[in-house]
Amino acid sequence: MEAKHKWKYHLLLISIVILMNFFSQYVIGGMDSLLKEFTLPRFYYTISFNFIFFSIYFFNFYIICPLTLKKNRFYKFILFTLLSFILFASIRYFLEEVILFNITEIHNYGEKSRRVGYYFFDNTYFALKAILYSTVLFLFFQYNENKSRIHELEIDHKKAEVNYLKSQISPHFLFNTLNAFYVELIDDKPETAKDIHKLSELLRFVTYESQEDFLPLKNEIKFLEDYIYFYYKRFENELFVNFKVNGLVNVQQIPSLILIHFVENVFKHGVINDKNYPAEINITIENDSLELTTENKFITSEKYTSKGIGKTNVERRLTAIFKKDYVLNYDNANDRFKTYLKIPLK
Known about the structure:
Blueprint: H1 3-36, H2 42-68, H3 74-104, H4 116-168, H5 171-185, H6 190-207, E1 214-216, H7 217-235, E2 241-246, E3 253-255, H8 260-269, E4 279-285, E5 289-297, H9 309-322, E6 327-333, E7 336-344
Parallel strand pairs: 2-4
Antiparallel strand pairs: 1-3, 4-5, 5-7, 6-7
Helix pairs in contact: 2-3, 2-4, 3-4, 5-6, 6-7
């Protein structure tokens, strides 16, 4: 989890703790007791306490927990926790009973309460709360990070399985066979030979070119055109899909196989043989960005939704590449499914 997101949780917890402290004063002594917390010199001690409390909180979160819990050194965590108790009480005594006393001439603790045994015991309670809150939050972040790491390992494992299966069939053998068919049919059946050549190019793109992280946009669009072409061959005059590319295609780079997910969904889940509701696939190319929009009537019996492992993986990949510098929206209403994607171009 990124640091800026962690700070949102920290600020939320800090706000809750401070508000709960004020609320407890209200419950114990009413409004007069609450308002007293904002009057001098009481306000000095309130600030002092919160400063010490959250100093121990962050010390435990950023130093103790990473050095102990992250490395499964639980005995060291217990030892550092005991030291934190002493540190909390010592700092608080120095700030409140020495420095603030010299300023306000008022002790925060009574004379008997300032005895070492009682003072340490009383402050152990507050230190324990700071350590407990920060430890729970640290473990929460660790759990999320570990879960993401396990998910990435599962994806890598699936990729390894796919690569292994691909390696079982020699691509050279497959391409040579298709080329042989092409040579045999080019004179007698040129249209069939042309289709075999397109199929060979499509397979070559998936097998070789798509292994790169980024590819020329023109290659990606050519792949989509060939993909759609074979659907036209399959459905002939019963396919109603409008595919348009608007803008100038030059040397722009795009993440490989990022657009096919959305195009494939149109053909797999959408109604593509209804001339009254043709499916729409539009790509608009600007100077530094690309927009993809799709719209199609969906098969109601199939419960077409935007959920699924494919959607999740695409979003993870987009986030990994562009961070938050992309837009991805889904809209599902009135038997029409729409997607909108906007990404930067290299």
